[in-house]
Amino acid sequence: MPQASERSQASGTVPSPVHHPAQPPPASVDTARLVQRLVAAGMQGISAVHLTRNRSTLVSFRAGTLRLHAGFLRAPDDVVRALAVFVSGRGAARAAARRTIVAHHLPPDAAPRPPRAARVHPDDHVMAARLQQEHARLNAERFGGALRSIRVSVSRRMKTRLGHYAPARSHPAGAEIAISRRHIRRHGWREAFDTLLHEMVHQWQEETGHPIDHGPAFRRKAKDVGTTPRAKRLLR
After folding, report:
1. In this structure, are 84 and 131 located in the same domain?
2. 89 lies in the same domain as 128
3. Element (H, E) at 62
4. Which of 9, 103, 124, 210 has the fewest CB atoms within 10 Å, i.e. is most exposed?
5. What is the value of pTM for the model shown?
6. Per-residue pLDDT of the chain (236 residues; tens, 9 = 90+)
7. Closest listed residue to residue 164, CA positions, set 7, 5, 29, 2
């Protein structure tokens, strides 16, 4: 799930100088408590729970094992119920549960450390600037200017994907769109701009509270703004 799905994403108190703050319970204890809450909420078919720091896929389950972001350890009761329904439910109830899970705010202390800034090739600065300008144009023309202005970068690491949207919850510096440099060089700017528009539909999903996926809502919006709902193709 980006999110509870995937594409192929602080405040504190000063302790008193006299009283020492209580230490939080070990993660294993917290996990056991969460499992109890999930079972009480109706979760079935899960025999093991593994905590992750993966903000791109918040929740996934397979063969009796539930993989769950650690930020859900102390989730409120409505979110715990949504997790149970997502695992054991079906249809409209499961879709509603997914929306609740995606909307849950993960605590800052569960966030990964910000990645070190990568060195950018001079050629990529020019490409990224052109993509950034196109993002602004497409936002105005296809989305009525409703989307936020976010960073658009050029990736030299993508081998099969044309582009990628990194949601704000998985990026400490904010949401970001990356477009494959190989894609730009081999297929040209027209196709690269279409890929950018595809990723902007994912941006629209996050900013409007939809799951980030390629489901019916994505396909409808993609058609509305004039892009194809493909996820990737081979770059040869």
Report:
1. no
2. no
3. strand 59-62
4. 103
5. 0.54
6. 444 433 332 222 223 333 334 443 345 677 888 889 999 999 988 888 888 887 667 888 888 888 888 888 888 999 999 999 998 888 888 888 888 888 888 765 544 444 444 456 777 999 999 999 999 999 999 999 999 999 999 999 888 889 999 998 766 678 999 999 999 999 999 999 999 999 999 999 999 988 888 889 999 999 999 998 765 444 45
7. 7
